[in-house]
Amino acid sequence: xxxxxxxxxxxxxxxxxxxxxxxxxxxxxxxxxxxxxxxxxxxxxxxxxxxxxxxxxxxxxxxxxxxxxxxxxxxxxxxxxxxxxxxxxxxxxxxxxxxxxxxxxxxxxxxxxxxxxxxxxxx
Length: 123
Prior knowledge:
This protein is an alpha/beta fold and 123 residues long. It has one domain. The protein has three helices and five strands. The strands form two sheets. Strands 1-2-5 form a three-stranded parallel β-sheet, with helices on both faces. It has a two-stranded antiparallel sheet with strand order 3-4.
């Protein structure tokens, strides 16, 4: 926020999997026109059935043993992933941040083109 003194359009590209960024985004939105580009890899939305696996959080280093054969557990994981995505989209909308959803297994350009066409119609 200190780099650009005048109001500008800023694009924030992230998977938004971290927590605790909401206050900073709200402050940035007050000063700039902020557009969130959310990158999602469908392989992160669900866990494949591969049996027991040990997962490590890349940021915290915490490890967890997970049974991916457990349908209840994998269903809960997918549900929580979707709930977190919806909560994020609702929050962004509430504070006036436009969102572009990019999926790594689909066209990268189509959502961006759709966004700018929609934005052009608004203005």
